[in-house]
C-alpha cells in the first residue's frame, strides 16, 4: 500500500490556506490510485514536544534507535521512510520556518538514522521521493512586489536534501493578509498544482 504523509505546520490547522492546497494534492493522489492511504500529521503546539535533555543526551551518546528518548523521532522518521509521496503545508513566520516545523526537522534530521557523515559532509540515508511543500505567507517575498526575504525555501530544500530527498516542488501562497491578493494567490497555486506531473491532474500514480 502506498502512503502519503501530509504534514501541516500551521497553527490554523485545517483552516490554513496552505493546508487546503496541500490537501487537494493529497486527494488527487488518493483518487488516482487504489491502495493509497493518507496520514495526517498536524504539528500543533504540543506535538511534537520540544527537544528535551534525554533526547539530546541520546543523540550525543549515539544511543540505539529503540531508546525511549527516540520514540517521537522514530514515529516521524518512519512516516517519511515508509511514504511514497510527501506533502508539507507550512506558514512562513518571520521570514523562515515556524517553530512547529523546526521541531519536526530536529526530530527527523538525526545522525546515523536519516543522514551520516562522509568527508565532513552530511549524506542522506533515505531514498528520494516526490515531495510537495506549500508555503503560506501574509507578506510577499517572490516577484516584482516582494517586500521581504525568503529564508524558508532554500533552508527547507537543504534540510530535505540532507536526508536524501531532492525531488521537491514548492508552491507559494503570498499576500494572504490582503483579500484580493490572497484570492489571486490561491488561483495561481491551484494552476501550479494542476500541471504538476505527480501531484496534479497528470499523476505518476497512474502513469497518465
Automatic annotation (TrEMBL):
- Quote any Pfam family the record assigns: Flavodoxin_2
Q: What is its EC number?
A: 1.6.5.-, 1.7.1.17
Task: Give the co-factor note.
Answer: Binds 1 FMN per subunit.
Please name the InterPro entries in this protein's record: Flavodoxin_fold, Flavoprotein-like_sf, FMN-dep_NADH:Q_OxRdtase_AzoR1, NADH:quinone_OxRdtase_FMN_depd
Q: Which cofactor does it need?
A: FMN
Is Transport one of the keywords?
no
Q: This protein's superkingdom?
A: Bacteria
Which residue numbers delimit the Flavodoxin-like fold domain?
4-190
UniProt catalytic activity: 2 a quinone + NADH + H(+) = 2 a 1,4-benzosemiquinone + NAD(+); N,N-dimethyl-1,4-phenylenediamine + anthranilate + 2 NAD(+) = 2-(4-dimethylaminophenyl)diazenylbenzoate + 2 NADH + 2 H(+)
Q: Which residues form a coiled coil?
A: none
Q: Which GO terms describe its molecular function?
A: oxidoreductase activity
Q: Can you tell me which residues bind FMN? A: 10
Keywords from the UniProt entry:
Flavoprotein, FMN, NAD, Oxidoreductase
- Please tell me which top-level EC class this enzyme sits in: oxidoreductase
What is its quaternary makeup? Homodimer.
Purpose of the protein: Also exhibits azoreductase activity. Catalyzes the reductive cleavage of the azo bond in aromatic azo compounds to the corresponding amines.
**Which family, according to the similarity comment?**
Belongs to the azoreductase type 1 family.
What is the protein named?
FMN dependent NADH:quinone oxidoreductase
Q: What is the lineage of its organism?
A: Bacteria, Pseudomonadati, Pseudomonadota, Alphaproteobacteria, Hyphomicrobiales
Amino acid at each position: 500500500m502506498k502512503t502519503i504523509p501530509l504534514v501541516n505546520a500551521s497553527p490554523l490547522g485545517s483552516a490554513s490556506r496552505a493546508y487546503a492546497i496541500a490537501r487537494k494534492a493529497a486527494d488527487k493522489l488518493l483518487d488516482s490510485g487504489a491502495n493509497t492511504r493518507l496520514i495526517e500529521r498536524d504539528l500543533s503546539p504540543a506535538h511534537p514536544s520540544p527537544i528535551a535533555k534525554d533526547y539530546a543526551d541520546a543523540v550525543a551518546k549515539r544511543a540505539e534507535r529503540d531508546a525511549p528518548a527516540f520514540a517521537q523521532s522514530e514515529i516521524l522518521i518512519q512516516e517519511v521512510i515508509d511514504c511514497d509521496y510527501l506533502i508539507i503545508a507550512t506558514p512562513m513566520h518571520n521570514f523562515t520556518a515556524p517553530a512547529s516545523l523546526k521541531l519536526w526537522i530536529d526530530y527527523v534530521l538525526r545522525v546515523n538514522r536519516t543522514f551520516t557523515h562522509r568527508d565532513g559532509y552530511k549524506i542522506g540515508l533515505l531514498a528520494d521521493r516526490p515531495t510537495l511543500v506549500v508555503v503560506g505567507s501574509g507578506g510577499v517575498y517572490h516577484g516584482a512586489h516582494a517586500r521581504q526575504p525568503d529564508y524558508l525555501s532554500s533552508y527547507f530544500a537543504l534540510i530535505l536534501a540532507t536526508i536524501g530527498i531532492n525531488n521537491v516542488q514548492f508552491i507559494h501562497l503570498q499576500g494572504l493578509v490582503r483579500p484580493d491578493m490572497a484570492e489571486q494567490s490561491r488561483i495561481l497555486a491551484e494552476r501550479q498544482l494542476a500541471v504538476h506531473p505527480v501531484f496534479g491532474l497528470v499523476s505518476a500514480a497512474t502513469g497518465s
